[in-house]
Amino acid sequence: MDNIANHSMAAAHAAASGGSVAGPRGRKPRRTLSRRNMIVYGTLILVALYYLLPLYVMIVTSLKGMPEIRVGNIFAPPLEITFEPWVKAWAEACTGLNCDGLSRGFWNSVRITVPSVIISIAIASVNGYALANWRFKGADLFFTILIVGAFIPYQVMIYPIVIVLREMGVYGTLTGLIIVHTIFGMPILTLLFRNYFAGLPEELFKAARVDGAGFWTIYFKIMLPMSLPIFVVAMILQVTGIWNDFLFGVVFTRPEYYPMTVQLNNIVNSVQGVKEYNVNMAATILTGLVPLTVYFVSGRLFVRGIAAGAVKG
Predict the structure, then answer these.
(1) pLDDT for 190-204, tens place per residue?
(2) Which CATH superfamily is domain 105-258+285-310 in?
């Protein structure tokens, strides 16, 4: 009691005499606008502006008429906004013998991308699940072949694939191109799914096996509900790769089945008539809208899935 009274009297005396009781000690909080933060954020802003500048030029050019473009100031915003270049790029620009714009190529790309993404992800997810949780004879050899296939240049395989598709009777059709995209997407997707499934708690798999669950029951009821991030990663990779593909589209299909990228190339590189830069820019933006939308909508899950599917081998 005497000690407590003495401490209380000392504190009161210090307060009365203008002193202060010792407060918490430690490092002071870092200032928000420190020199280090200014350098980091300044660098990030400059890099972002560097990458966004071409997109800005494309947008403002696509909203200008040709007389305004001929003035030469590509960075100036449009004095009179017009959407005529967008309409022409979508429905009127000539992509060879046809002058129906990118609309036909857009629907061809949709018909190519949707089944290719679904089939390749479905097969690769099962492959990765089997390689991670169900060890079978020859699994290591199978996985090695898949990994080697992921690094074989596409150009080396073009002629053999043309022969195979021709013998199958699907060369020059959308079905043949879907098969090609599905096969070439398999190695890297299988690697991603295998690494992701290998990183999930093994106890869940063992507990399900003890309860009598089989291959497909564990896959659908345990693995799939826990695998949304890696499925988003696979979807983004496949949608971006297939939608932006030019080589396979021009090699394995006929003009009536050309995807959007091939038709964009025909519009931009046309040597007939006046070079309409506003139409070219509008066509380029229209072609890239789908993968850009996918990235913006699911970007956070993409980062999560990449981190989860790449750290374990």
Answers:
(1) 888 988 898 888 888
(2) MetI-like (1.10.3720.10)
